[in-house]
Structure formats: structure tokens, C-alpha cells
Write a structure and sequence with these properties.
Largest sheet: 3 strands, parallel
Helix content: 40-55%
Distance between the termini: 69 Å
Number of strands: 12
Number of helices: 24
Shape: elongated
Strand content: 5-15%
Strand order of the largest sheet: 1-2-3
Structural class: mainly alpha
């Protein structure tokens, strides 16, 4: 059995969520898509606000399912469409962008017709689309970028618009029961673009000629009759989603839990239009530190730049991969643990049998091609403790400590470790150092610290972390602490200024015995 066969066999029964999702596509097309056509995956993006991780998350998770499907089929063709709804009318001005007054003057216009408040692109939508593409490219995603404006204006969606007009009553039959009475009076599946104001109008529409695409409506200047084709109109949200699925032949699209009703209605409309709604699932939402849903317009979520200032790219993908159907917080305080857990799973991968590898998040993050090295000589948490100490607040100084601890490492040969040291310096400077406050030791702790200092003085300068850890344990046992946990907490609070910290043996080996003894001396010199 080849490695590919072994992976496929294990994937067919794997409980890892990407394989469970990918198996839905095997049922959808048991014999594969006709004529060898690719399986179409899609993610949608509303570019009315700045992109954030919650938006980006959909592309990452969809890619995991796409890769799982390719493994299940031995490499059947696939395609990922990243679709931007950039013809939507701007309904409100986002809180986190400049030129608020200017944007307010363009409310209602398609996002591609609104000037860029940042002054760098052709329009507001072009700016935000460029940001999204930059994010996707940075992670090396394989995708085709499609713009709603281009699809409507080029005529690509003309036939599906005709199909909506032909099935007007059927579409209305799906939508009207879901609307309040007041909304029913003005609802239209078609949103015409006013020839006088350029705004996307929410007005009743009359179908004049479905085949010709002619509609009539009232705008600011009175009754208008014009074509709905060629970018002169766009489809209402849920109709638009359904029409896109049908027009582009989408087989798989996931969505947030807040869109469950939208998925239901759009699926019904897709069937009215003669299509088949895609497979997919509804994931839970990301929450900020206050437990509130992350919003593009509020700007209360993390940007990719913020995460990548303090954590590695794989650590972000790792956090996104895990538990997609569980609501999770997403804030800067999570980064250190995400980084270390990612490396823990990466270190386990090589020794796991195939079935366990397929359940390991790093398999999906790296598409089965795990880069070397498999592990690092020290954790992000340990680095944070190191670079939080006085005199070790820069990358170059930190490297001198690391190379003494792990002599075979260097910035040239260990790029990921080099990156991690820089990230730890950033995180420690911005979030750790300002909170540190070393307290003086009490009477019991003074005696124990003196004992530890005496024991460390007996060790050679190159003693390893395990030997030092054993001594730390033995010293703690010799003194009347309620538990060893109390002893270690005393070390953290008196030496490092934190309520929690690293494995002390590893830390002392990294920081150096002489330096660690100086820390102890400083603690003992503090008045009680």
C-alpha cells in the first residue's frame, strides 16, 4: 500500500472535522463531478469594513476541507473562489476608518463607487479587497478572486438574473413569509442602481420582460424602466447568495452560526432557480475579550497584523483549526499558549501512526508536509520569561542566552526560532514587562532561596535543565511550604515578578546559573 493509499484509507473513517466535511462531497458526487470538472469551494467577503481574522478564518477552514477532499479522492481537481460582495451599497460608515464625513456622503452607493478613505486605491472596496488578497497571499492560499462588481458588470451574472426574473413568484414565495409586514411592501429580489443618484435602491420592482431583463421602479426622479443586466442592478442578499451558488456551480461553502437562517432561505431559492445548494456547516463565532461577537464595523477583533506581531503564522492557523463549532475567544492573551501548543502537536507528528496524524492539526495546517525542524529547543513561554528580565529586552541579547542553552542554533540555521525570539520580545515589551512586580520573600521563602542559592553555587556553569530542576524540587521539599506548587509560585513572584512562570530548571539553564543567583540576591536584598 502506498502512502497516499494509506492516507485515503484512514481519511475515509477519520473523525477529524475536515474529513467529515469532505465526505459530504463524496456523497454529493459519488462518481466525481461530470467531465472531470473541479469541485468548487467558495468563501464570501463583505468589504464594507477592514478585514479581520474572523473573516480570514473562513478561507483557512475551507482550505482544510478542500485539502481533505483531495486526500480522500487521491487528488481530484478542486477550486477555491474567494468572492467579494463589493457591489453592495454602503449601509453605514464603519467606526474604524478615516474620512467619516466623506463616506457618509456616499451612503447607499456600491462600494466600488465610493472613494477610498485611505487614499491608496481606486475605491473603498478596492482598498479592502487588496487587504484581503494580501492576507490570503501571505498564507500561501490557492484561490481565485472574484468581484461581484465584475461579475455583474461583465454580464457573467446576466443569465442568473434572467432566471430570477423568470421565477419571480417562486423567489418571492420563499422570502415574503420570512419578512415583517412593513418590509414585505418594499421587498424586491432585484436591487436596481439608480441612474440619477448611483445608489443601490431598496424599492419595489416590476418585471417588464424577463428574457430581456427589463424592470421598472421608482427612484428620486420618478418612474424608471431599465435593464437589470450588465451591472445596472444587483440581487438582494439571500437571493444573491443563492444565485451565486447556481451561477458558479458552488459545491461547498461554510458560514457562521449567525447565518443559519440565511443559508436555509438561500438554499430554497437555489432550488427555485434550478440549482443545488452547496454542502457546508455553520461554525461558531469568535468573541473578543468581553465575550462580544467580533465585528468588522466595530473593529473589535484582531487584525492579522496584530496576531503576527506577537505570534507565528502557523500558530494562528492552529488556533483557527481547532473546534470550529465551539464559540472561542480571540484576543492577544491567547497567543503564547497557541504558539506552544502548535509546536507540541508538531513535535508529536513524526512519531504518530497515519490515523493519528490525520487528527493532528498540523497535518491540515501544512497539508501533510510538515517542515523541519520538528521541534524547538525551548518554548515560547520560556522565551517570554527570558526577554522580560532586565537587560534582555532585545533580540540579539536573547540569542546569546539561547545559544548558550542550545549551542547548535543560530539565526541563520533556525529561522523559525529566530522569528519566535523576535515575537517574544514584542509580546514581553508590550504586555508582560509593564505588569511585572517582584515582591519581597517572606521568612520561609528567604530560607529556601538561600538554600537554593547555595545548591546552585555547587553546580558547574553548563549544568543541564533536568539536573537543576531536581535540585529545585529537593530544596522545596526541605522547607515548610504547603505544597511544591507554593514553592514554585514563590520563585515566580519573587524572582520573575509574575504569578506563573516556566519550568524553573529550564529557565535557570537558559538564563545561566550566575545570572540566576544574581536574581536570588536581588530578591533577598528587598526589604520585607
Amino acid at each position: 500500500m502506498t502512502e497516499m493509499d494509506a492516507i485515503r484509507e484512514a481519511a475515509l473513517v477519520s473523525k477529524a472535522w475536515p474529513y467529515e466535511e469532505a465526505r459530504k462531497l463524496l456523497k454529493r458526487w459519488p462518481d466525481g463531478k461530470p467531465n472531470g470538472e473541479p469541485m468548487i469551494f467558495e468563501t464570501g467577503y463583505g468589504p464594507s469594513g477592514l478585514p479581520h481574522i474572523g473573516t480570514f478564518n473562513e478561507v483557512a477552514r475551507t482550505t482544510f476541507v478542500r485539502q481533505a477532499y483531495e486526500e480522500l479522492t487521491g487528488g481530484a481537481p478542486t477550486r477555491l473562489i474567494a468572492f467579494t460582495d463589493d457591489m453592495d451599497g454602503l449601509r453605514k460608515v464603519p467606526d474604524n476608518v478615516p474620512e467619516q464625513e466623506m463616506l457618509a456622503q456616499h451612503l447607499g452607493k456600491p462600494l466600488t463607487q465610493i472613494p477610498d478613505p485611505f487614499g491608496s486605491h481606486e475605491s473603498f472596496a478596492h482598498h479592502n479587497n487588496a487587504m484581503l488578497r494580501h492576507f490570503l497571499d501571505r498564507f500561501g492560499f490557492d484561490y481565485d478572486f472574484l468581484s461581484a462588481t465584475e461579475c455583474y458588470s461583465s454580464g457573467r451574472f446576466d443569465e442568473i438574473i434572467r432566471q430570477v426574473l423568470r421565477n419571480w413568484d417562486g423567489v418571492m414565495g420563499v422570502m415574503l413569509p420570512t419578512l415583517r409586514e412593513e418590509r414585505r411592501q418594499t421587498y424586491s429580489p432585484i436591487l436596481p442602481v439608480s441612474p440619477s443618484s448611483g445608489k443601490v435602491l431598496q424599492v419595489p420592482v416590476q418585471v417588464i420582460d424577463a428574457e430581456e431583463g427589463l424592470i421598472a421602479f421608482e427612484d428620486e426622479e420618478g418612474r424608471v424602466q431599465q435593464s437589470a443586466l450588465g451591472g445596472n442592478a444587483k440581487l438582494q442578499w439571500k437571493v444573491d447568495w443563492a444565485a451565486r451558488w447556481v451561477a458558479l456551480g458552488v459545491d461547498y461553502e461554510m458560514a457562521g452560526k449567525d447565518l443559519i437562517d440565511s443559508v436555509t432561505q438561500s438554499s430554497k431559492i437555489a432550488r427555485v432557480l434550478g440549482g443545488r445548494p452547496p454542502e457546508g456547516f455553520n461554525y461558531e463565532m469568535f468573541l473578543d475579550e468581553k465575550g462580544e461577537k467580533i465585528s468588522k464595523s466595530k473593529g473589535n477583533g484582531l487584525s492579522l497584523e496584530e496576531w503576527l506581531r506577537y505570534g507565528s503564522e502557523p500558530s494562528l492557523a492552529f488556533y483557527i483549526y481547532r473546534e470550529p463549532k465551539k464559540a472561542k475567544s480571540l484576543h492577544l492573551g491567547l497567543i503564547p499558549r497557541a504558539v506552544d501548543e502548535y509546536w507540541q502537536f508538531r513535535g508529536n507528528y513524526a512519531g504518530q501512526p497515519t490515523e493519528q496524524r490525520l487528527g493532528n492539526p498540523v497535518h491540515h495546517i501544512h497539508n501533510g508536509r510538515i517542515p523541519a525542524p520538528e521541534s524547538l529547543p525551548l518554548t515560547y513561554g520560556l522565551l517570554l520569561n527570558l526577554v522580560s528580565l532586565p537587560g534582555v529586552h532585545d533580540k540579539e541579547t536573547a540569542w546569546r542566552f539561547v545559544q548558550r542553552y542550545a549551542p547548535d542554533t543560530s539565526p541563520d540555521t533556525h529561522a523559525e526560532l529566530d522569528e519566535l525570539i523576535g515575537l517574544a520580545v514584542n509580546y514581553a515589551r508590550d504586555f508582560v514587562v509593564p505588569t511585572l512586580k517582584r515582591r519581597p520573600p517572606n521568612e520561609v521563602e528567604v530560607a529556601a532561596l538561600k538554600d537554593l542559592d547555595a545548591e546552585l553555587a555547587k553546580l558547574p556553569g553548563d549544568a543541564d535543565g533536568e539536573a537543576i530542576q531536581n535540585i529545585v524540587f529537593e530544596v522545596g521539599k526541605r522547607h515548610p511550604f504547603e505544597s511544591l506548587r507554593g514553592w514554585f509560585q514563590a520563585l515566580y513572584e519573587t524572582l520573575l515578578g509574575s504569578s506563573q512562570g516556566p519550568r524553573m530548571g529550564s529557565f535557570i539553564a537558559l538564563y545561566g546559573i550566575d545570572n540566576s543567583r544574581r536574581l536570588i540576591a536581588e530578591a533577598l536584598a528587598k526589604p520585607a
